[in-house]
Amino acid sequence: MSTTHADIPSMPFEHTQQFHDVLAAAHEFLLNRIEDQHLDIGSWTQDVVVHYVDTETASFVQEWRIPINEAEMRKVSSALVKELTGFGPLDDLLLDPEVEDILINGYQDVYVSRGGILQRETVRFSDNRHLLRIVRRILAPLGRRLDESNPMVDARLPNGGRLNAIIEPLSVTGPSISIRKFRKDPFTPDDLLARGTFDRPIHALLQAAVLGRCNIMISGGTSSGKTSLLNALASFIPHNERVITVEDTAELSLNHPHVVRLESRLGGFDGGGAVSIRDLVRNSLRMRPDRIAVGEVRGAEVLEMLQAMNTGHDGSMSTIHANSPRDALYRLEMLSGFAGFQGSETSLRRQIASALDFIVQIARLGSGRRVISSITEVTGVSDNIIATQEMYRHETFVDINGREHDRWPGLGFHPHTHKLESFRQFLHDAGAALS
Asked: GO terms for molecular function, please (predicted)?
């Protein structure tokens, strides 16, 4: 049976090239009108802006005899309001609480991550100039530039998100924009428990580890939930302690009353004035911290962080990009070597083993859910190898009805660290005692 043209559903007007052509022309018309009339729409209320744009859009459509109907004209008018007062096609995505990441590969190619699942969106920009105009509007209040002389930028957004942009000639396919959004209200441990990130015995172990001032490294891949987990664990820190966070781009939003947030700074055009994470970690030791949280260990700051964990700043936490606890330890060794560690391989491993108590591995499943995949205790050095014992491991099983479930069986080890001695009964009562 053949398919007729009438059988094919028509594309929504706002997704058509005609819409974007009309929008671009109407936007230019509107800007000229605003300039000719010497208007300061930045001082207007939203209702006044909407009324003005509706009126001017109707004038534009009539004057230029644009072949669109009333409903289509309203869509153009609504898009123009977002162009003037917001961030154009990005407006709705930035306001959507379910959106985690916005990834743009040129003006026609927009992907969005919701619940850990990446899907292509129907929104698009008129052209690459339109896309760059919106990105530069986001960057303008931050004092950051994006042009041929500065074709890469990484910036923290006022709402706590992060924007990374790279343009031609470095990006061959056009402007590539990555926006990472963060929740206004970070997940609590109870939230993550309810979402199935871990179970009650692991909740109890993590709480005891934080209260017992264990040093914790959260390991995982990109977008696995490392920052969210670190934010959640910080809520266990007693409120009478002072926490200092150190990050490249400030992403942590700790649920704690006494937090000092430090952020590194890029150098100027000549490289002067740069302040690295290593500088900030070194300085934080002079700020009377009870605990230090390094957003992500990725460079020379690893030596200062290990030193802090070994010299009276127990209870510190950090994240690292690694696919397993053993990979995390290898990465710490590698970063320390790059940072110029002067001692032997054995002394480096002893320092790492002495600094860390637990490595919490977190992963994103194929379904998009984030789960703790293992909890591993660092127990010391044996035969010149950092010794570990895995305490919990994530498993999935299918019940008789074909439904998939999670479980985290304990692997039969008592925590080795003396820091948890006083929590034995607490862990036992919570079902976290390991036989």
From this structure: ATP hydrolysis activity
**What whole-number distance in Å separates Cα of residue 358 and Cα of residue 74?**
57
Kindly state the tokens that stand for 316: 């510190």
Q: Are 296 and 321 in contact (CB under 8 A)?
A: yes
Q: What is the pLDDT of residue 366?
A: 86
Q: What is the DSSP letter of 175?
A: -
Taking CA atoms, 53 is separated from 45, 81, 126, 175, 261, in Å, by: 12, 7, 19, 29, 41
Query: What are phi and psi for residue 293, nearest 5 degrees?
Result: -120, 115
pTM attached to this predicted model: 0.85
Alpha-helix runs per DSSP H in 113-187:
128-139
- Cα 174 to Cα 104: distance, rounded to the nearest angstrom: 10
Q: Does domain 189-429 have CATH number 3.40.50.300?
A: yes
Fold of 86-181: Beta-Lactamase (3.30.450)
Q: Residue 269: what pLDDT?
A: 63
Give the C-alpha separation, 108 to 173, whole Å. 11
Q: How much is the pLDDT for 270?
A: 62
pLDDT for residue 156 is more than 90: no
Q: Give, in order, the Cα–Cα distances in Å from 221 to each of 23, 225, 273, 295.
A: 40, 8, 32, 14
What's the Cα-to-Cα distance from 65 to each of 55, 57, 62, rounded to whole Å?
15, 12, 5
pLDDT value at 412 more than 80 = no
Residue 271 is predicted with a pLDDT of 64
- H helical segments located in 195-324: 200-211, 226-234, 277-284, 301-310
Q: Where are the domains of the chain?
A: 10-84, 86-181, 189-429
For 295-357, strand residue ranges (E) read: 317-321
Lowest mean pLDDT among 253-262, 326-335, 405-414: 405-414
